[in-house]
């Protein structure tokens, strides 16, 4: 099955929103942060000093990669490995980013870690 072009557009837009919000409100943001050299996994955004991660989950309404079986399973592997390594993984949808819920939770997580 071919990828849905609209899902790819939605995912890029979501990442853009996440980048802008995260960088505007918090210091020490690392985009596309590689946390596991063997698997070459990357986080969308990380705050390495606090071991906090933000993953922007795109295409959730359009059968995007994160909601199809293989993509979902791969995400589980990545998030579980991160948790075992001591990272706190925060997962957000576009709606959560746009309505401010993502930034509120991220801010609380950083305040707790600091």
General description of the model:
The protein has a single domain (about 5-114), classed as VSR Endonuclease (Endonuclease, Chain A, 3-Layer(aba) Sandwich), CATH 3.40.960. It is about 50% helix and about 20% strand. It contains four helices and four strands, in the order H-E-E-E-H-E-H-H. A four-stranded mixed β-sheet has the order 1-2-3-4, with helices on both faces. Strand 2 (about 40-45) and strand 3 form a beta hairpin. The protein starts with a helix and ends with a helix.
CATH topology: Endonuclease, Chain A
- Give the name of the CATH superfamily: VSR Endonuclease
Helical content (DSSP H or I, runs of 4+): 40-55%
Mean pLDDT across every amino acid position: 77
Q: Based on Cα principal axes, name the global outline.
A: globular
Contiguous low-pLDDT stretches (5 residues minimum) are: none
| Intertermini distance | 45 Å
- Structural class by helix and strand composition: alpha+beta
Strand order of the largest sheet: 1-2-3-4
């Amino acid at each position: 099955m071919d990828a849905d072009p609209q899902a790819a557009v939605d995912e890029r837009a979501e990442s853009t929103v996440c980048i802008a919000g995260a960088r505007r409100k918090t210091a020490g943001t690392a985009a596309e942060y590689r946390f596991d050299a063997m698997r070459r996994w990357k986080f969308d955004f990380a705050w390495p000093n606090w071991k906090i991660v933000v993953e922007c989950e795109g295409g959730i309404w359009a059968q995007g990669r994160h909601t199809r079986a293989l993509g979902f399973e791969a995400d589980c592997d990545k998030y579980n490995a991160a948790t075992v390594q001591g990272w706190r993984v925060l997962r957000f949808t576009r709606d959560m980013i746009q309505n401010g819920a993502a930034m509120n939770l991220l801010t609380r997580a950083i305040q707790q870690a600091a």
